[in-house]
Amino acid sequence: MEGPDPSEPTGPGPSPQRQARLFALLYSAEEVQHRSRQIYDEMLARSPNLQTGNFTRIGPDDLERLFAAYDREFFRGRLSEMLLEDRALPMDFRLSGRLVRAAGMTTRLTRPVRNLGQGKGNRNSELEYEYEISVSTTLLFGTFRDVERAVSVGGLEVHDRLEALQRIFEHELLHLAEFLGWGKSNCRAANFRALSRRIFAHEAAYHDLVTPREQAVVAHGITVGDRVTFEHEGIRRVGRVNRITRRASILVESPDGRLFSDGKRYLTFYVPLPMLQKLT
């Protein structure tokens, strides 16, 4: 009995045929390196934002360019074909300053669409899909800045911001591929790891980018729990660092504040790190 032909397009939604088309993709480490470098050079040549490997600005259209290049060079156009089958093309790309724990995120939304062609009262419906890939600008621009250390994404060492972006985007494309083929995705599962090795020669599913906490320690000497002072609306205040993302969350003891688990009341201030002075 013959299996599905991976070269043939299929209908909408996840299916064994789609899974076969994705698992038919296989590249050597040398091929991956060559194709990735082609995309690197293409981005620098075509993007009005990415002028150097350590670019200082980026737009959602750059993520769209990356998608087109990767779909062509690594997926043989199959991602676009599957998205088109799902009526989800073009998909959405977003740059997020709020992603501080994950370097990227791929989401799949489904909703039922009533079949309007079979008369009033018809209860049959099909699913409509929407996909979005987001990339963290907080982690991307916090890396290759003040902290000097080796950086790896997907278990591979990267040498500048564009290489980091490529590895992040490759990881997210694997999530997209799993959503399209299987309807679910888990980068800790064996299926994801197999696809990542076959298509991108990734050695791991984790990213070791510079976090806001690490940036705060190196650039400002501040960490969670430190006692700090800062000025707010002309008043000098003293508090403790409770959390660090793009800004530091500072708890200042006050009778007008919210009650916390330690039995004290605190006002919360969100302060840019350069405005803080550490107290000893």
The radius of gyration computed from the alpha-carbon positions, rounded to a whole number of angstroms, is 23 Å
**Strand percentage:** 25-35%
Helix content: 25-40%
Question: What is the distance, rounded to the nearest whole angstrom, between the alpha carbons of the first and last residues?
Answer: 75 Å
Spatial shape: elongated
Number of domains: 2
Biggest sheet architecture: 5 strands, antiparallel
Task: Quickly count the helices.
Answer: 8
SS-based structural class? alpha+beta
Describe the structure.
By secondary structure, the protein is an alpha+beta fold. It folds into 2 domains: 16-210, no CATH class; 214-278, SH3 type barrels, CATH 2.30.30. The protein has 8 helices and 11 strands. The strands form 3 sheets. The protein has a 5-stranded antiparallel β-sheet with strand order 10-9-8-7-11. Helix 6 (161-182) packs across helix 7 (190-200). The longest helix is centred in the middle third of the chain and has 22 residues, at 161-182. The N and C termini lie far apart (75 Å). 32% of the residues are buried.
